[in-house]
Structure formats: C-alpha cells, structure tokens
TrEMBL record:
<dbReference type="GO" id="GO:0005524">
    <property type="term" value="F:ATP binding"/>
</dbReference>
<keyword id="KW-0067">ATP-binding</keyword>
<keyword id="KW-0418">Kinase</keyword>
<dbReference type="InterPro" id="IPR029056">
    <property type="entry name" value="Ribokinase-like"/>
</dbReference>
<dbReference type="GO" id="GO:0005829">
    <property type="term" value="C:cytosol"/>
</dbReference>
<dbReference type="InterPro" id="IPR013749">
    <property type="entry name" value="PM/HMP-P_kinase-1"/>
</dbReference>
<dbReference type="GO" id="GO:0009228">
    <property type="term" value="P:thiamine biosynthetic process"/>
</dbReference>
<keyword id="KW-0808">Transferase</keyword>
<protein>
    <recommendedName>
        <fullName>Pyridoxamine kinase/Phosphomethylpyrimidine kinase domain-containing protein</fullName>
    </recommendedName>
</protein>
<feature type="domain" description="Pyridoxamine kinase/Phosphomethylpyrimidine kinase">
    <location>
        <begin position="81"/>
        <end position="347"/>
    </location>
</feature>
<keyword id="KW-0732">Signal</keyword>
<dbReference type="GO" id="GO:0008972">
    <property type="term" value="F:phosphomethylpyrimidine kinase activity"/>
</dbReference>
<dbReference type="Pfam" id="PF08543">
    <property type="entry name" value="Phos_pyr_kin"/>
</dbReference>
<keyword id="KW-0547">Nucleotide-binding</keyword>
<dbReference type="InterPro" id="IPR004399">
    <property type="entry name" value="HMP/HMP-P_kinase_dom"/>
</dbReference>
<dbReference type="GO" id="GO:0008902">
    <property type="term" value="F:hydroxymethylpyrimidine kinase activity"/>
</dbReference>
<feature type="region of interest" description="Disordered">
    <location>
        <begin position="341"/>
        <end position="361"/>
    </location>
</feature>
C-alpha cells in the first residue's frame, strides 16, 4: 500500500493557488505550452490570431492585450439529468469551473428530480453518431469523459468511435465512469450493455472510476474489506485492459465504521472517505484518503469527480495529480453543497481547490 507523498500534495496546492491568483485562462495552461507574442494593436483593436496548434481554433487579442490561449476542449458523453445535479449538466459545469470548454454528446434523456428518476429515453444511434462526427470535425476533444451508456448498441457506437480515433492516433485521455444505477435505485444500464462496455470502452480508457456498488456488479463479489477493494482493482484492470482504475467508496467498508451517503459516493458517518487507485504500469496501488464531510447533499459527486479528472488531464497533468486535485475539488464542492428539493442536493461546482483541508492524503 502506497500513500500519496506529502511533498507532492504541497506542490499541487501551490499549483492550485497560482491558478486562483489569475482571472484569465492563462492560469490553466501548462508553462510548457507555446505562447504567441503581444501584438502591436491600437487601444480599441480586436484582432484574430493565426491558427493555433490544433489548426481549428482561433485566439483573439482584445484592446492590444496579451492573446488568450485556446481553452482545452473536453467532451461529456453521458446522459442528461433534468435536475441539473449530475450527468452532462454536472460535467459541463465542472469543465468550465476548471478552465476547460465542455462539449456534450447526449446518450439519454432522463426525467428526474432530486429524489427519483421517472423516465429514461435513450438517444437514437443516428443522433449519437451524428453528434460525435459533428464535434470531431470542428472541436476535437483533448479529453473525453464517458458516463451513462444505457444499451449495448449505444456502448458499441461510442466504442467504435473511440477505436477509430485510437487507430488514427488522435485519441486523448478517456475517463469512464460506469454509471449503472442511480442513487435512488433506478437501473440505468442493462447487463448486455455492461459486458459491451467491458469489451469496447474499458480497453480505450485511461481511467475507469466505478464506485463500490458498480465495482461489485462488475467483478461479481462483495467488497467488505480493503483487501477486497485491492483485489477488485486488479480484477478490473485484467478484465477491461484499461490504463488505470479508481475504486471509489472505501468509506463503507467493514472496519472503517461508516455508512454511505445518499449518493453512494460521499460519506455520512465514517471518519474518512477512501478510494483506491491502481495503474496498469506495475506500480503499487495507492489509497487516497479524504477527510470526513458531514453533508447529505452529495448528488453528482461521481460525475463531478470523473469530469474533474478529465479536465485536469486535458491540461496535461499526470494521472495521479489529476485524481488528487479532483478529489480536493469534490470535497470543496461538498462543503458548499446545499439542499434544493426533497432529496439530496447537488455538489457545488466551485473552482480550483483552494484549501489544504480539502486535499486527500
């Protein structure tokens, strides 16, 4: 078992602080990114720049100021949450809050509020494929977050798209949050879709982020102790051949003295929330531990975590750094969350994590 290095945490906190100190997108671009020089323009000039490295986006110099770098583009391929707390709605808010531009590929419409899902309508395959092709033509993704994929046909359509991009060498980071059941108990994915996801999505994923329940459904056994989580992580890597797995929800394990939140992602009474990260590079896995947060308003934490990881990877951060920052971002959002309806309220989409107390160890 490897704990996250304390010195690494300090560097991440400095990085977050620097980002918070700027009001422009400049703060969110790695120092190694190319910069275009200031232009000689009049005080009221708005001037288009030359084509950027991607060849598809333009930058603008407003009133002779420094050019703003193009924001990293991140896609959400997921279901729509009419209540606005999870799904594509949460993803897009997280992308924006963390300095990226979000695009959406809607895989399903859901009629839901804070305590129930009343109806799910899966997007047509034609609309799904057309949306993917349309975005790829003009706004290709630096990173992709994948959420709800309800049917095997939808899974295969997305999987084929990822395979084509991988063959072309243009596939960026892919974060798969295997959404199967809502926090209110509604089933969002059938068994055929689950197997298709293992076969076609997982092999293209940089990281998969199942919570405790989803991991149990995938591996076929109950996770009662930390050793079960570690075993499940290894089994999931072997099963799907993904780059890494983050098993969420160790706070509900025997011996840790806690119960799960209404969302199945946050914690209620446990002393800590523990997730387990295992990469396929042969390195030992890491337990990533966050502080106790007493807030029932945790709807959308799973979507938010995976989206935040995608946003940080789109800004060229290493995977472990992206996961740690995403955990801090979610903790910060839970602290600010509030109740909106009769059920759990959504985690708030705030900004780069700013408090040391929100960082895991």
């Amino acid at each position: 078992m490897v704990l996250y290095p304390r010195v690494h945490f300090c560097l991440l906190l400095v990085l977050a602080s620097l980002a918070l100190g700027s009001t422009t997108a400049e703060a969110f671009v790695p120092a190694t990114a190319s910069r275009k020089p200031w232009r000689d323009a009049g005080p009221n000039t708005i001037m288009a720049s030359s084509i950027t490295e991607s060849g598809r986006s333009s930058e603008y110099d407003v009133a002779g100021g420094p050019p703003l770098p193009a924001l990293p583009i991140v896609w959400s391929i997921a279901g729509s949450d009419s209540g606005g707390g999870a799904g594509v709605q949460a993803d897009l808010q997280a992308f924006h809050a963390l300095g990226c531009h979000g695009c959406s590929v809607i895989t399903a419409l859901t009629a839901q509020n804070s305590h129930q899902v009343c109806k799910v309508e899966v997007s047509s395959l034609d609309m799904l494929r057309t949306t993917l092709a349309t975005l790829e033509d003009d706004m290709p993704a630096k990173a992709i977050k994948i959420g709800m994929l309800a049917t095997a046909d939808v899974v295969r359509a997305v999987g084929n798209f990822l395979s084509e991009k991988a063959t072309e060498g243009s596939l960026g980071a892919v974060i798969c949050d295997p959404v199967m059941v809502t926090s209110s108990g509604s089933v969002l994915q059938d068994e055929l879709a689950r197997q298709a996801m293992i076969d076609t999505i997982f092999p293209r994923a940089t990281l998969i982020t199942p919570n405790k329940h989803e991991a149990e459904m995938l591996v076929g056994y109950t996770l009662r102790a930390p050793e079960d989580v570690e075993r499940a992580a290894h089994d999931l890597l072997a099963m799907g051949k993904s780059g890494a797995v983050l098993v969420k929800g160790g706070h509900a394990l025997d011996g840790l003295g806690g119960e799960e939140s209404a969302s199945g992602e946050g914690l209620v009474d446990a002393a800590v929330a523990q997730d387990y990260l295992l990469e396929s590079n042969g390195k030992p896995g890491s337990w990533i531990t966050s502080p106790r947060l007493e807030n029932q308003n945790t709807h959308g934490t799973g979507c938010t975590l995976s989206s935040a990881v995608a946003a940080f990877l789109a800004q060229d951060l290493p995977l472990v750094d992206a996961v740690v920052l995403a955990k801090a971002y979610v903790s910060q959002g839970i602290r600010a969350a509030r109740k909106l309806g009769r059920g759990p309220g959504p985690v708030q989409q705030t900004g780069w994590p700013a408090s040391a107390s929100d960082f895991p160890w």
